[in-house]
Each structure stands twice: as structure tokens, then as C-alpha cells.
Amino acid sequence: MSRAPARERMGALLLIVPLLAFLAVFFLWPLWTMVRASVVDDTVSRVLPRTAAAIVSWDGQGLPPTQVQQALVEDLRQADDQQALGETVRRLNSAVSGFRTLLTRTTNAVRDGTDAVAVDLGDLDRRWKEPRFWLALRDAVPPYTDRNLLAAVDMKRDAGGAIVSEDPGASANRLIMFRTFLVAAIVTLASAAIGLPYAMLAAAVTGWKRTALLLAVLVPLWTSLLVRTTAWFVLLQNEGLINRALQAMGLIDSPLPLIFNRVGVVIAMTHVLLPFMVLPIYSVLLSVPRNLMQAAASMGAGPLRAFWRVLLPLSLPGLLSGSLLVFMVAIGYYITPALVGGANDQMISSVIAFYAMGTANWGLAGALGVILLLVTMILYFIYGRLSKSPQLLGA
Amino acid sequence: MFRTAQILFGVSVVIFLLMPIVAILPLAFTSSVFLTYPIEDYSLRWFVELATADAWRLSIMNSLIIGLGATLLSTILGTLASLGMRSKALPFANLLRTMFLLPMVVPAVVLGVGMQMLFVNLGLASTYPGVIVAHAVLCVPFVIVSVSASLQGIDPSVEKAASSLGASPVMVFRRVTFPLALPGVISGAVFAFATSLDEVVITLFVAGPNQRTLARQMFSSIRENISPTVVAAALLLIIGTLCLGGLAALLRWRQERSALKAVP
């Protein structure tokens, strides 16, 4: 008897393993790669392994001992990966300018000399007698760094290694995070303000009216996100349908600025995310017995009082799940702000895409990605705790 | 008074939800190069452009190839895993389920950045297999949700009856379990295809110019130089996804009806 469950377990595992392996390679590994890119900085230590090992014993006073200098000579002589060497030079040169010419000259000289001859770096180039080059080298060799994670929140380490805020104006990541949360919060509030009464209405009516109200939510949900964003892009133009209609009605004289600004982003995102608010509230309200409101009314509560004391408290769990869902999806949004928003409406996803695709700054893109991923996962965890079945709607 | 306000509110939200989609569609048939009303003259020139311009034609082909590839891959993997998750003997079932649904939750840009970095090292960057597996990752949750739901609706006593009548486990699966789960599998595949068709963000990161999909092509033409071709493409996508959505809804409805029939 005991063999049957074991065999069943084996069979179940065999069915699951292909998907598990697939997601491990193509889902978890990419995320891990991104997390690693945000904290790993091994360009220099990979090219100069001996120097990296030797320089840690140096206390940073005066010039490093000769074995460090000999290690560097040996590393430069052995370095055969030109591309990696080039990256190392770039990295060091961004720390102290002049490092490029210094390293190129040193590398050439070291390679010309024979192995047996010990090279004196100070004789080769006077700059090796300046501690600042060695200090920059020491700062660049540790394979792990918190530089990117700090830069993602506009912080850095000063010369003494203490964590300080970046100069105001030097970077805008904190502002963008604040903006992301602000836009997501506005969209969540707007969705709740429209979605809660709408869901209540849909739960209150019956027959074709309910079908129509629900279809109006489901059709946009089935429609491609890109199509909906395209629609808003066309509608919100100065020459678009909304401005034309308002002008024709005589409500406005000149077109309202609706696109490439915050207003457009909020309108379009609310439209896209409204179904995620309506459906959880609606499904919670469906389980409310229909005669509850009548009971409240029969006991003397007016419609407003019955709503406030009965219907609203009962719909709160749905409202909470819906709000979490909308907020969670909103903070990661990319397409809608990218197309409908202006330069001042770009959210954290756009900045990540900019660092990754525009400037190939993988470290910073990864660090901002880690922050976005972390916030999303925390929200998802809370959402999963609140709703019984932790899955998104729409499927 | 309260009733009028209710009706007014309901109608205006319905308009807000549906108007954008409905309002732009006629613009696909304009003969002008501008996306404005009133439409002076109707023509099909933008559909002709869609079918003949190389960039658009290639992107439609790519969307079909990548969509079918991703659908096939995610439906097979997701259906197998859903069957496995039915077993009560499986350890960590909840954890596994959460893990399988995660691709739906992780922000697309985050996953895209990670995939771009990894795919360069794996030699998958800017290749069809790379884009297909990337899309398949996003499609898996939809397949899992759909197939699991239809498997849950199967009465275990039907399978027990089949095996008590002498059917082997393989036979039970082929003749009883799978036919009953098939509507769920198909609607999962439909959702998977629709997801792939609509995907832009990950595609931006992992696809090269040769793997440009329709959605990706629409995204860049809106950004660079919007023309009614984009609306014509949008109309195609709407018709495509509405047909697919309708198909999925029909299958689900039929399944619910047959489930109701099964219970006397």
C-alpha cells in the first residue's frame, strides 16, 4: 500500500519537472543575472587577480609595498583579453582621469621587457609615485559593490567610505521613485472612486443590465493593452476627438493639453487598470446575500446609512485586493507612460529601460530593477495573504 | 433622483470603458494621413499598406511565428505541470503554484533587463528561439490558471469508474481525463497566444530588428511617426483578440454547462 503514493508522487514530479526547469532557466536565472549585475563589479579583479589579492594588505598610507607593484606588473604582462582590459581601463579612468594613458604606457613597457627583469613602476611613469592612482585601484578591485544600489537611491560613499546623499541635482532617481508611487497612487484612487460604485451597481442590477456592465469591463480587458494605449494616444491629441468634441460643444476655446503630461497618463492608466479594481470588488459583493440591504432598510436604516454600515464594510476586502492589484501593476508600467506621458511623467520602468538600452549601464539598471522587484514582491505577498486564491484576474 | 444618478453613472463609466476602443476604429478607414475626425473620404489604403509594406508584413509574420511557438511551448509545459499539480501527493504544491504564476507579477521591464543580459551570454539575444522562450515564460501562468480550473471541474469518480471497468491509467487519461480537460487546454492556449501577440516590453529587450513583432512595430511607429496604419493594425489586433476571447469564453461556458449536466 505504501508504494502507491510514492509512485504517484514520482509521476506528479515528472510532470512538473519540465516546467520547473524551464522557468528556472528562463525566468529565475534572468532575474538572478539582474540582481547579480547590481552588486557584482568584477571587471577589474578578473583582469588583475594578483593585484587584487595583494593590495588588500596595503593600509592605504604612502605607496603600496613592492609585492603589490610586482603583482600589477605580472597581471599586466599576463592580461590577454583585450576587451576585458579595455573595460578595466575605462572603469579606472572614470575614477581618476589619466589612468588610461598611464595603464596603456605601463602595459606596453611591461610587455616589451623580459620576464626576468623586475620593473620599477615609479621609474616607468612618475604617476605611479602618486598615491591617488593606487587608492583608485584599491577601490576598484573588490568584486562586490554597493555603488549601484546606493546610486539607485541617490546615495554614494564619500572618500572615507561613509554613506552620504548625492548632491542635489546630480541624480534624480529618488524623484522618479516618488513620482512612480504618486502616479500609481493617483491611478489607484481614481480606479477605486470609479470602480467601487460601478461594482456595487453591477452587483445590484440583474439580467441584461448586469451582463452589459460586466461586458463593458471584460471587453477592454480582452483588448490588447497596446491598442488601448494607441486609442488614448489618438483621442487625447490637441486635434483629437475629445478636444474637438469639447470645442464643438463650446465648452473650451483652445484645446486642453491632455497628452504628453500627467493628466493623459492618469486617464489612460486608469482606463487600463479599472477592470482589476472592479472585478475583485464585484466577486466579493456577489457573495453578499441580496436581502441584507433589505434587512437594513426594514430595521429603519436609510439607503445612505445602509450603504455606510452594511455594503461598504462588506466590500472592503474586495476594495483592498483591487487597490493592491492596481497599485502593484501600476508601479511597473512602461508602455502607457512611454507613449502618452511627457519627459516629466516617466516612471521607474522607463528609467530602467533607459539605463539598460540607452547607456548600457547594467549595474544601475539592475539596482533600480532590484528595488522595483522587491516592492512588487512585497505587495504581491500582502495581496496573496489577503485574497484566498493568489492569482491575478483576467485569466 | 438616486436612480437617475445611478443610471447616469453606469452609462458614463461604460462609455469611458468602451468609447476609446470604438472611437478610433473608423479612423483605420480614412483616406487622409491624419488621424482626425471628420473622415472626409473612406479607403482601404492603410490596410493595403499593412499588407504590402515590408516592415509591417514582416512584423505580422513574426507575430504569428513567435505567437505560435510560444503558445505551443507554454501550453505543453503548462498542461503537464497542471496535471502534475492535481496529485495530492505532491509536496510544496502551494509554493509551486505561486512560482508558476509569478511571471504574471514580475514587472516586464525587470524581467526584460535580466533576459537581455542573460540571453547575450547564452547566444539567444536577437534570435527567434530567444523571443519564443521569453514570450512562453509570460504565457505559462495563463495556461496554468486555465488548465487547472478545468481539471478541478473533473469529477474524480468518473476516472475511478473508468479504471474500475478495467481501463489502464494511460487509457483513463486518453479517453476520460484529457477530453474533459481539453476545453481548458484550448482556452489556455488562446490566452497564451493573445498574451504573446500583445507583448511589447520583453520584446524590446530580447528581439533584434529581424524579430520585430506587430506589437513592437506599432509601439515604435506610435513613438516615431504615427499614421493610420497603426490604427489599421490595432483593428486587426482587436478583431483577433476578440475572436480569441470569444472562443475562450464559449469553451468555458460549454464546459460549465456540461459540468452542470454531469451533476444530476
From TrEMBL, chain A:
GO terms for biological process: transmembrane transport. The keyword Cytoplasm does not apply. It comes from the Bacteria. It is found in: Cell membrane. InterPro entries: MetI-like, MetI-like_sf. PROSITE patterns: ABC_TM1. Residues 177-383 form the ABC transmembrane type-1 domain. PANTHER family: ABC TRANSPORTER PERMEASE PROTEIN, INNER MEMBRANE ABC TRANSPORTER PERMEASE PROTEIN YDCU-RELATED-RELATED. Belongs to the binding-protein-dependent transport system permease family. CysTW subfamily. This is ABC transporter permease subunit. It comes from Microvirga makkahensis. The lineage of its organism: Bacteria, Pseudomonadati, Pseudomonadota, Alphaproteobacteria, Hyphomicrobiales.
